[in-house]
Amino acid sequence: MDRGPRTVRFEIPSSTLVRLLLVGASLWLVMRLWPVILVFVVALLIMETLNPAVQWLEARRVRRLLGIFFVFSGVFLLAVLILTLSIPSVVAQAAVLLEREPVLRASVADYLSHYHLSAPFAEWLRNLKYGAPGNTVGATAFAYSLRIFEIGAYGLSAIFLALYMMIDRDRLRGGLYALVPRTHHLRLSRVMLNVETIVGAYIRGQLVTCLLIGAFTFVLLTACGVENAMALAVFAGIADVLPYIGAILSVVPVFIAALGHGTTTGIVVLVAMLAYEEFESRVLIPQVYGKALRLPSSVVFFALMVGGTLMGLLGALLALPIAATIMMLIEELRVDLPGEQAQVADTELRARDDLGEEEYERRTLGIAAEQAAAIAVEISVDRRNQDLHPGVSP
């Protein structure tokens, strides 16, 4: 029996509409404030990198404000010294490399033209043209100058913000803990400690690996008699900020520069750089970063691609600590992933969490949020020390 067409009515609850509007407004606000968010993230990186040095001075009875002054002054003087000693030489060598680029490219093309497989690439090198017309050089230089000025302004803002955050650490931490229910204070303190460990290990690892590959490249090229070794070494160090990928990128210009001194020199430099890249990825990076990141190679490459696609070089730089932080949050917040079965260790961790929260609530009964935050950090540090040294009593 035909009852006629049916009317289907979709009703969306008002609460759902409010949530959608709030999500949309949040996304719009994030897009508008994206530069400010990046400044805040960079300030956090600076703060967490320098904070261990300040804590080391505090442990030796140096007042915190004085320790912050010593650390920032030392970093500033070291940066000025490095820039003063290296920038003139690097700029001069880079200018020489740019002047010699046509001759170097022609010599590489002549070398590749002797082989059947590489002959098309040699022809492409000979016919390579750089596209910018002469009348656009001024506009391009002006645009880059504005961009450099903008980056410098954001960088200075991040440095000063990190300085203020380190000075007002206790007050800011107390305000944050006042916004979070006390039942989550211990978990928050553990998350903050883990973030500090991840960021500190990442930045220190970046500095060590970049300096080592720069020094290795400089010594190798100097020993092989390749000119402009300093400029090429600085490029290798800068490229190495991208773990695994940067070392491979640095091989190409170094090999091309060495190839201009003969096939034997080029092969020696290529083999040495590839051997160092293998040593860095297999031995150096796991040792330097330790267990702070704990990212599989597949996650590293995926995070680098996502960060580079979304935010360019800065996104690639921030990709690994952000990925490590996300994995840490999944583990710390006890997020049950699909297909994951409960383990005995997870049950024991939850029991320890409950005991720690009971102790925290007992010790912080009736005290201010700033003092409670300090107690939460103390309990979390003791627990981390127990996890690292199970046989040692706190």
TrEMBL record:
Keywords: Cell membrane, Membrane, Transmembrane, Transmembrane helix, Transport. GO terms for biological process: transmembrane transport. InterPro entries: AI-2E-like (IPR002549). The keyword Transport applies. One of its GO terms (cellular component) is plasma membrane. Pfam families: AI-2E_transport. The chain crosses the membrane at residues 20-45, 65-87, 148-167, 244-276, 297-330. It is a multi-pass membrane protein. Its main location: membrane. It is found in: Cell membrane. Belongs to the autoinducer-2 exporter (AI-2E) (TC 2.A.86) family. This is AI-2E family transporter.
